[in-house]
Design a protein that fits this description.
mainly alpha, 2 domains, two-stranded antiparallel sheet, binds zinc ion
Length: 277
């Protein structure tokens, strides 16, 4: 759910370099023969923002899928794609772009999977850093009966703004969290945001982390009270701090909910906090 800058790449020269490097191997003729169409397909990927409904699979590539997968899985050190893959893996991200959970994403996900789209296996625009949990839920899926299942961190510009909102249901000493599509999401995108939250099981994942995080909220409220600080302002500070990383970080989603819920703020400022704090 985090917007990432799109990798900068000249697709035609990239494909041409990869094809040139194949000219000493057994697939020389195959790659030379597909260069033009492969280039066009990669350019279409960019034009269609990775939307599978507008990017049919390619029988020629599917017939030679292993060759494409090898380019991704075991590139020679001096191969054209090697430094690009390395850069994508070396990102110093502190949040997973797919879910917004804290931590450095451990893996590269093929937004359109290499099983169905081997020709996009080394296309940087199709490779998105992701955490293991997200990848485990996403696997090779990308589309359902109602359209695409996942947001694309390189192309969904609305990811600059919040996409998930939290509601905290009372009682406030033992509340229930509910994760929703943010009301600020453009109408045309609410369905895909909802599918993204469902498919990555973000409701239950957020819920399990919420228990611990909410205790920190209560503790912070207690500290602020002891110091005679304004509780609402204190949470506004935390929200601002969290927004520096992303408005779609789990921390920001939590603090944004706290700050915007007057009943919860009233409880945190003056209610009976649990004794165990
Ligand atoms: Zn993730």
């Amino acid at each position: 759910m985090i917007r990432l800058p799109k990798p900068v790449i000249d697709i035609a020269s990239y494909v041409s370099e990869v094809v040139a490097e194949r000219q000493n191997g057994i697939n020389a003729a195959f790659f030379a023969g597909i260069q033009a169409e492969w280039t066009t397909r990669c350019q279409h990927y960019d034009m269609k923002a990775g939307d599978s409904s507008q990017l049919p699979t390619w029988a020629t590539a599917l017939g030679q899928a292993t060759s494409f997968k090898t380019l991704y899985a075991s590139p020679a050190e001096e191969a054209a794609q090697a430094p690009i893959l390395k850069t994508l893996r070396d990102r110093s991200l502190t949040l997973c772009p797919m879910c917004g959970e804290g931590g450095t994403p451990n893996t590269l996900d093929h937004y359109l999977p290499k099983q169905d789209y081997p020709d996009f296996a080394i296309l940087p625009l199709n490779l998105v850093p992701a955490c293991d949990i997200c990848q485990g839920h996403k696997l090779a899926r990308y589309s359902g009966p109602n359209g695409r299942l996942f947001l694309h961190p390189y192309y969904d510009a609305f990811l600059e703004g919040p996409v998930a909102a939290l509601r905290i249901h009372p009682p406030y000493n033992a509340p229930t969290p509910e994760l929703l599509c943010h009301p600020g999401v453009p109408a045309a995108a609410t369905d895909v945001v909802t599918r993204h939250l469902d498919e990555l099981q973000l409701h239950s994942r957020f819920k399990s982390s919420f228990r611990k995080e909410y205790i920190r909220v209560l503790r912070h409220a207690a500290r602020m009270r002891n110091r005679n600080r304004d509780v609402h302002a204190a949470f506004e500070d935390l929200r601002e701090h969290a927004a520096d990383r992303s408005v779609n970080s789990w921390e920001h989603i939590l603090y944004d909910c706290v700050v915007n819920d007057p009943e919860l703020i009233a409880y945190l400022a003056a209610g009976q906090l649990p004794n165990y704090l």
